[in-house]
Amino acid sequence: MERLLAGQLKPMIPCTLKEAFEKVNPSIGFNIELKFDDHIVYQQDYLIHVLKAVLHVVLEYAKGRPIIFSSFQPDAALLVKNLQTCYPVFFLTNGGTEIYYDVRRNSLEEATKLCVEGGLEGIVSEVKGIFRNPGLVNKIKESKLSLLTYGKLNNVPEAVYMQHLMGIDGVIVDFVEQVTEAVCKLVKKPDEILLEGEEKVQNRPQFSQRELSFLLKLIPELIQ
């Protein structure tokens, strides 16, 4: 990978996890994704060996930094949850937009089942998987799981705003500042002036499944 610097292409210097902890402002949280090859069936002993090496660095250098672990590898997600109690663990899923040999990776329903049975804190789904199955959002929330999303559509402010309406807990985006600014303009601020006897209501509309399905059709990328 290369970066444009002073008019020339310069190779980016690899950074270890230890160096990231030492050089990045400690107030900035880390989402540590535990990556494994999609096409390899890993033995548990190997996974434990790798995860313990990562945890050794985290426990020594994190020093109070907000951290979550995430992984597309179901067994790795379950193991890292069992190997430590300090940090939340999220299961990454394509939400059924791609199919794998491990059925636990092939749907939001399977992801929910894995998280509930394994005591994980939540799901990070490809956003199209959520938009194609909006009715599952409530089921995931009823299971006491947090729900985040990732994907190219999250760089579209309207898509992020739609997720705000749906009750998604957070989004992973490439252009944080630009998307945040655009979404803030879409979100109406609640009226702070209340008449006597009125109660302050939540500033999030409640939609039926039919209404959500209609609204989702307004995002053109989803029909490609």
TrEMBL record:
Listed EC numbers: 3.1.4.46
Pfam short name (any one): GDPD
UniProt catalytic activity: a sn-glycero-3-phosphodiester + H2O = an alcohol + sn-glycerol 3-phosphate + H(+)
A single GO BP: glycerophospholipid catabolic process
Domain GP-PDE: from-to ranges: 1-183
Enzyme class label: hydrolase
GO molecular-function term, one example from the UniProt record: glycerophosphodiester phosphodiesterase activity
Keywords attached to this entry: Glycerol metabolism, Hydrolase
The name this protein goes by in its record: glycerophosphodiester phosphodiesterase
Native source organism of the sequence: Solanum commersonii (Commerson's wild potato)
